[in-house]
Design brief:
Structural class: mainly alpha
Largest sheet: none
Number of helices: 9
Distance between the termini: 37 Å
Number of strands: 0
Strand content: under 5%
Order of helices and strands: HHHHHHHHH
Helix content: over 70%
Oligomer: single chain
Shape: flat
Length: 234
């Protein structure tokens, strides 16, 4: 499951703000340069970032398998033609490069999630964006990071329960309905329990957050973020 994992990698020791800067710079560069040569360079950079975070790429790709139909479907649909040759590689090239670009951005985001505690992410957002807007965004980031893995686990349990009851013998539409309704029912129940837990713990918009400090280790990350941002503008 794609969540924070304690560790002593280079990325674990970085300030979350510098990691966020690298993510923003990488996304900007990926959207600005979509040629195969540029994406090849970005792929090498992704491999370096994954090594710095000790991120297992095969395991991470399995976590993103839900996005595979969308990433693969766009090039296939774009390349289909109504007559011979029935599939145009030239028409499918641009959406294929776009899908690959999205995949690279997802992998960089996974490196951030694996190496950054939720409280540090909230602190980085609230100290970067001032005022109530920053507090609102910080709370949103914290709840998403904490709540999304739980919802994924609920969907997995609903799917396993359906399989245990021979649900795989049902038509595909019925299987989708069973898993979707079961997951939605659990999500609504967890939402109610989350609201009750927040009230019971005297939820505060501006709690005491962990101390953040940029250090020498963050200089390469900030330099990389600046370089990617400049490359996107140029």
């Amino acid at each position: 499951m794609l969540t924070y994992e304690p560790g002593d990698s280079f990325a674990h020791g970085l300030d979350p703000r510098s990691k966020l800067a690298v993510q923003v710079g990488f996304a900007a560069a990926a959207f600005a340069h979509t040629t195969p040569r540029a994406l090849a360079v970005l792929t090498v950079l992704v491999l370096a970032l994954a090594a710095a975070a000790r991120l297992s790429l095969p395991a991470t790709l399995r976590e993103f398998r839900f996005a595979a139909p969308f990433l693969a479907g766009a090039p296939l649909l774009e390349g289909l033609t109504l007559g011979p040759p029935w599939f145009s590689v030239a028409e499918a090239t641009v959406p294929a490069l776009s899908s690959y670009r999205v995949l690279l951005i997802l992998l960089v985001s996974a490196a951030y999630v694996r190496t950054t505690p939720v409280r540090d992410s909230r602190a980085a957002v609230q100290r970067t964006v001032p005022g109530r807007a920053g507090q609102f965004l910080g709370v949103g980031v914290a709840l998403v990071f904490r709540f999304l893995p739980v919802l994924q686990a609920d969907l997995r349990r609903a799917r396993d329960g359906m399989r245990a009851r021979l649900g795989t013998e049902q038509p595909l539409s019925e299987r989708i309905r069973l898993v979707a309704t079961g997951g939605l029912r659990r999500a609504l129940a967890r939402t109610d329990r989350l609201a009750l837990a927040l009230r019971a713990r005297c939820f505060a918009w501006n709690p005491t957050l962990p101390r953040l400090a940029l250090g020498r280790r963050d200089l390469p990350a900030l330099a990389l973020a600046a370089f990617l941002g400049a490359a996107a503008l140029l």
